[in-house]
């Protein structure tokens, strides 16, 4: 019986699990003590999943061990912990430190603060930390320490699961086991971002697992359109929107694409449209709450104008600053190289180094202008679009393009290695019309483009790209190393 090497990729595409074939033996035909190949395969699958989970957990714990200590004052942790504390103590979802205790708010999406509050209800240590952060003045907040209590092991488990999903997704898009393992290691060791957010009270601890899960379900839905997958994807997109509101636009885009796809693939198109509808139904209770309290069905209210104002500050880029940004955005050596090539045009491209950087202007001058010209939060996005986007659409498009370029570079040297592999995978998927890989990479690129158009595009906004980057690396490196290993093995037996 032949090995069937030529058909192995096709078999992997079909089940995404194993090249092993399954043989069914009639009852009573197996010799005593023999084990059917079906049970062997299931045993291998279960053991391999346990190994994947163990390695994923090891990567997260190793990454955490390499990080410097931090307090709960870092990043936006005080905001989420404050909302969770209010929710736990008053039963009302508030704006945390940005609002009053007991007064309803909707600056942020609710799922992650609700998760913190749920865990804090069972863990007094986390509840104490959240209450301290909520009440302490900013200079004294460092005294609240860094105790996340039971939230820490929960987030470690969630982010370890995310790495396992990277492994599984690589198999689903046609990679073999070598590719899947190298993808897992690239995501787990090549970047420590998952470890960073495993020990940080930030929405990424929830949005990264959910986005990885939705990515896998998207591939599986394209592969085999089924009602249960459409339901699962829709619920996943709804929960993702309740964690990060920008995913509402991705949900809508999937529905629009589904209507178009239905013209030539009715089953898949209807499944995608159904996922969009189910996603909307998942967020409906929260939207109805916001409509009753704030007059809007949007997942968040009152915060969008501030975020867009930060982005509009970059519309003041000169042509030379725009050129310099392409080089400045490169991780590691980029800023130094840009200073050498454009010595007079890089001063405003940084973050908080100077008061006149675009980022600082967005947080000061632009926000002050917004408060003066559009004091009603409901009018702020419209004002910014009318003032900065419609009069200069080509400038807006050009700045958005360079901001998207800036967003691609996640975690320095990891992205320097991964982006070329990702570009090759994307090009090949387009040229070959590989629907599975396009379903895997296009949603993250949509989110990157959305952030480039509407925000300052900080690297953490682009972490949704990590699974695609890791899979691209695994698909490029894994098969070559597998071939080298097999050749070494063959030479041992047939010198």
Describe this structure in words.
The protein has 495 residues and is mainly α. Among the domains are: 77-144, no CATH class; 204-243 and 246-295, no CATH class; 304-474 and 477-483, no CATH class. It is 67% helix and 0% strand. It has helices at 8-15, 37-65, 77-90, 111-120, 124-135, 151-172, 177-188, 193-198, 204-223, 227-243, 247-261, 266-294, 304-312, 319-328, 334-341, 358-363, 365-373, 377-389, 393-407, 413-432, 435-454, 466-493. Helix 9 (204-223) packs antiparallel against helix 21 (435-454). The protein is globular, with a radius of gyration of 25 Å.
Tell me the number of helical segments per DSSP (H or I, 4 or more residues long): 22
Question: Kindly, what is the distance between the CA atoms of the first and last residues, rounded to a whole number of angstroms?
Answer: 24 Å
Please give the radius of gyration in angstroms.
Answer: 25 Å
Largest sheet: none
Query: Any idea what the shape is?
Result: globular
Strand proportion, as a percent range, falls in under 5%
Number of strands: 0
Roughly how much helix do the residues carry, as a percent range? 55-70%
Poorly predicted runs are 1-44
Derived structural class: mainly alpha
**Average predicted confidence as pLDDT:** 86
User: What's the order of the H and E elements?
Assistant: HHHHHHHHHHHHHHHHHHHHHH
